Amino acid sequence: MKIASLLENVTKVRDKRRQYGNIRHKLKDVLVIGLVATLCGIKDFVGMEVFGRAKETWFATFLELPNGIADSETFRRIFEMVNPEELSECLNSWLLSERELTALKQVSVDGKTIRGSGNDYHAAYHVVSAWAKEQGLTLGQVCVDEKSNEITAIPQLLDMIDVSGAVVTIDAMGCQKKIASKIISKKADYLLTLKANHKNMYKSAKELFERIDCGDVEICLDVHESRQNCHGRIETRIVDCAPANLIMASSDWQNLETIVRVKYKSVCAKTGKETTITRYFLTSLPGNARRLSLVIKNHWAIESGLHWALDVIFQEDKSKAKKDNSPLNLNLLRKLALSILIPHKQARISFDKMMLRAALDESYLHLVLFG
Predict the structure, then answer these.
(1) Domains of the chain by start residue, with CATH
(2) Pairing of strands 222-230, 126-132
(3) Is the pTM of the predicted complex or chain greater than 0.70?
(4) In percent, how much of the chain has pLDDT > 90?
């Protein structure tokens, strides 16, 4: 059923090739081979052709392949032409329909620039993604011209996905009143990083917690402290919560409930050198320091779980694809491949080894891809 569902969904992607010409290869065949090749660690269009020819007998069991496997130039032209939004919608619909999803608990929103995608005609593409850590899924993505445009992209992204009941976490770029209101309208909660781009509010929050440090503990709602040894460092994290109505302009933010301060202290075990970082957050959640500490920590899963994988496992920034839609479509295939691999991850086997096994073992590839 998953094979039939995949083929049905990719058929919905519009074929932009001229229909009166000599079209030798089905669009759905090229798209599926590209996805499977990416799942097996292939990083370019030549690799897709080589992989497809090596696995032609296996692909022929569920694809039409009227003229065999397409060459690398056909792969390149098709991924340059295909609309990334259409491809994203179709492939994500397939994965979401086949995956038994639990209720969303947290959705992290952040942007990543595809470093090697710029050319003489356009700057490097910057993609804003919504990542669900528990499910290991990219729920949606929006491409913007540059990082500063994340402010307009985030509401568009939120309109594309269902975040009801979840906590939406965004860094300082998305700390905007309109974005907070958009999240509340989607029946979700928010946690936004507050930095000096909101000068007066940031100053007011800083002064509030200085009062707590000086002994005015009655205004502190809750405190949570944790400590761990990590890579030769002793890290201490102290989370303080205070009522948001005690800081300047809090009434301008819809459903703003709590202001949070997190103090990170890191001590090098060898040298004893100490580093301290303080961050502030605005949230519609109540002042439960332990829970908020976990929400803040989990936000960075989009960096470690998604962006790190794109850079290190799929080597996205080294990709030579630059023209038209090809960087965005390959970015989408990498995210989808990662989401497919995550449920099969085992503790001692890296993603690289999983991809290698999928490339060599067709029964394992079939299991990972179709269940």
Answers:
(1) 2-82+347-370 (no CATH), 106-305 (3.90.350.10)
(2) unpaired
(3) yes
(4) 64
